Amino acid sequence: MGDSQIKMKCPIEVLKMVLSREVGEDTLELVQFLKKNGETSEFVLAKKLKEDVNGIRNQIYRLQKVNLVKYSKKKDKEKGWYVYFWDLKLENFGFRYHKILENEILALEKIIKRKEDKEFFTCKNNCVEINYEDGLNSNYTCPECGEALDLCDVKKEIEVYKKRIERLKQSMDKYSSLLQ
Ligand SMILES: [Zn+2]
Question: How far is ligand 1, taken at its centre, from the CA of residue 132, in Å?
């Protein structure tokens, strides 16, 4: 997929999610500026975004750490020093977006498995989750509050997790084109 196609297909929803999880949402303005304008020097970024250059460098540094930006160096003919021009690695936003969702799904599946594998008891105040044996040993009384322990119905809870997984999978499908 060409750069311009990725640009169109990398919506703000994806940018926001990746930035809020991995970089900090304060970088959104800078990222949107680069998405719109392409390669830009730190100095122009500072001017356009009304920030000092160090503030811009700090944001760029955080983006670079997770490989979401690239640069090219150009020598300033008058001053003789190098100026850095930054641009986004938009394709990596797509990859990271999918990776984040994938990890979330895996974590939820683990929770479901753990819940399905084990029956457990809890009191009406939900102080504790106690396994079958410990429930038996504690005479079906909560060690924290003394209320009766009941077998916990995890089916509803598992349903909630499954729905969440469904939604995550839908988001992945929606933006699967970012991976091509
Ligand atoms: Zn209790």
Answer: 16
> How far, in Å, from the CA of 126 to the mean position of ligand 1?
6
Question: In terms of residue numbers, what domain contains 86?
Answer: 3-93
Cα(108) to ligand 1 centroid in Å equals 26
Q: How far apart are CA 58 and CA 131, in angstroms?
A: 49
Å from CA of 135 to ligand 1 middle = 12
Per-residue pLDDT of 65-100, as tens digits, reads: 999 999 999 998 888 889 999 999 999 999 999 999
Confirm if 71 and 82 have CB atoms less than 8 A apart: no
Distance 141 CA to ligand 1 centre (A): 8
**Residue 157: closest CA among 119, 102, 106:** 119
Per the CB < 8 A criterion, the answer to whether 156 and 173 are in contact is no
Same-domain pairing of 32 and 73: yes
Residue 129 CA from chain centroid, whole number: 29
Query: Residue 108 above 90 pLDDT?
Result: yes
Domain identity same for 137 and 163: yes
Is 160 found in the same domain as 123?
yes
Q: How many Å apart are CA 165 and CA 110, to the nearest integer?
A: 12
